[in-house]
Design a protein that fits this description.
CATH architecture of the largest domain in chain A: 3-Layer(bba) Sandwich
CATH topology of the largest domain in chain A: FAD/NAD(P)-binding domain
Number of helices of chain A: 8
Oligomer: heterodimer
Helix content of chain A: 10-25%
Largest sheet of chain B: 5 strands, mixed
CATH superfamily of the largest domain in chain A: FAD/NAD(P)-binding domain
Largest sheet of chain A: 5 strands, parallel
CATH class of chain B: Alpha Beta
Helix content of chain B: 10-25%
Distance between the termini of chain A: 38 Å
Structural class of chain B: alpha+beta
Strand order of the largest sheet of chain B: 2-1-5-3-4
Number of helices of chain B: 3
Largest interface: A-B, 25 and 17 residues
Distance between the termini of chain B: 30 Å
CATH architecture of chain B: Roll
Strand order of the largest sheet of chain A: 6-3-2-10-23
Chain lengths: 338, 106
């Protein structure tokens, strides 16, 4: 069981800056995120897209913003638990017991939810029967490519994941690549390679087609794809792989007894506390009158939630507001030499 | 101001007045019309405000910008007449527009 002053759920910009604020005022914290990397929506949805409304930063990409925030955290020792999703938050003797899907457990007086719109999960195929084959012959990520050796693999999608895997697996497998339109959004180099492999018969390319049905008993036997003219084609296949990007799902957060309004959590605007004492929500996931889903709002919310955490983490101490420009204590924490 | 009709996948229809300058997505969200999630808040980064535009209207709304089709690749059951409703801005010309909502957004 890990004891910490505050646990932050979500390693996006808001979670990262909230961690900074906690450390500045002398509290320790750890961060859990379901993605395998730091940065949240900034890194997953728009790493290359410029952002123009971060105060004092005229222009930066999602990736640059993330890297700058990570740099700002360098003076501090913060443990990240990536590729882990918080599944349970339970009250225990005035503390919160938090458990992840990997079994990591935390005991903390403060839980700060900076979870965006929930955790990122792969988008799945539309036909309901696909669930039956999921994790067996229908996959949304690849852990061990050797299982495809000598098999027929049908890959769906038009981005880099779909193209890269089609190219890679065509070495040892029979590959069908299926995409809903003619254009691919993946790298041009990969698109060219796929067309080359199509011409040499290494990849069967089906464009303007989507998955209509899947058939089989224990294992997938064939799939039916439908084109824009509603013509259906049956393809024998051992595996179907879907690469449609990631979607945000609220997931287990809905079960923690919080006051939800659609996919957001209602908070007050003094502490950004939810209806549960010691659980806060900041960033895109919180709602209050006038809420703006801007990164700068998340920074403000995190700063206030961090101060609220102090009371519960250090009940016998008094929090004193200090500026980073003048406080010796804060400079010591930052490792600044005068 | 334009009268916009949103038809849920189950056939339930909602007609509301949406102010000029708002997007079709914002019109739905502000009026609690179910079926449009808009997770990313309108930054063309999630494909959860996906709608189908009837044929007679499809060419009347402003055409897709760069990147919208890339996002639509990731939508649930995209079709030829798919659009992201966060990218369609309401004006008087859109009075009477009908959009159909997909079975679900994720």
């Amino acid at each position: 069981m890990i004891k910490t002053d505050a646990l932050i759920i979500g390693a996006g910009p808001t979670g990262l800056f909230t961690a900074h604020q906690l450390k500045l005022i002398g509290l320790n914290c750890e961060i859990v995120d379901n993605l395998d990397k730091i940065g949240g929506q900034c890194i997953e949805l728009y790493p290359d897209k410029p952002i123009y409304d971060i105060p004092a930063v005229p222009e930066c990409t999602g990736e640059e913003l993330t890297n700058n925030l990570i740099n700002q955290l360098k003076p501090f020792d913060i443990k990240f638990h990536l590729s882990e999703r918080v599944d349970e938050v339970k009250k225990d003797n005035g503390h919160w017991n938090v458990k992840t899907n990997k079994g990591t457990e935390f005991s903390t007086p403060n839980v700060i939810i900076a979870g965006g719109v929930g955790s990122f999960e792969p988008r799945k195929f539309a036909p309901k029967e696909c669930e039956k084959f999921e994790n067996k012959s229908i996959l949304y990520s690849i852990k061990d490519k050797s299982i495809f050796k000598g098999k027929t693999v049908s890959i769906f999608g038009g981005g880099d994941s779909a193209l890269d895997w089609a190219i890679e697996l065509s070495k040892d497998s029979k590959v069908n690549l299926i995409h809903r339109r003619d254009e691919f959004r993946g790298a041009q180099l990969s698109v060219n390679k796929v067309h080359e492999l199509k011409d040499t018969g290494k990849i069967n390319l089906f464009t303007n087609c989507q998955l209509k049905a899947v058939n089989g008993n224990d294992n997938l036997e064939n799939i039916e794809i439908i084109n824009n003219d509603k013509e259906v084609k049956k393809i024998e296949t051992d595996f179907a792989l879907g690469f449609f990007g990631l979607i945000m799902q609220l997931g287990p957060i809905a079960e923690w007894g919080l006051n939800l309004d659609k996919k957001t959590i209602a908070v007050d605007t003094e502490k950004f506390e939810t209806n549960q004492k010691g659980i806060y929500a900041v960033g895109d996931i919180c709602s209050y009158p006038g809420k703006l889903k801007l990164i700068l709002s998340g920074f403000h919310e995190g700063a206030l939630a961090a101060r609220a955490c102090f009371k519960l983490a250090r009940p016998d101490e008094k929090y004193r507001f200090e500026f980073t420009t003048s406080s010796k204590t804060i400079k010591d924490r930052l490792g600044v030499k005068e | 101001m334009a009268k916009i009709t949103y038809i849920e996948h189950n056939g339930k229809s909602h007609t509301i007045n949406v102010e000029n300058g708002l997007t079709i997505m914002e019109g739905a969200v502000q009026n609690d019309i179910p079926g449009i999630d808009a997770d990313c808040g309108g930054s063309m980064a999630c494909a959860t405000c996906h709608v189908y535009i009837n044929d007679d209207w499809f060419n009347k709304v402003a055409s897709k910008q760069e990147g919208e089709d890339d996002m639509l690749d990731q939508a649930y059951e995209p079709k030829k007449n798919s659009r992201l409703s966060c990218q369609i801005i309401v004006s008087d010309e859109l009075d009477g527009l009908v959009v159909n909502l997909p079975e679900k957004q994720v």
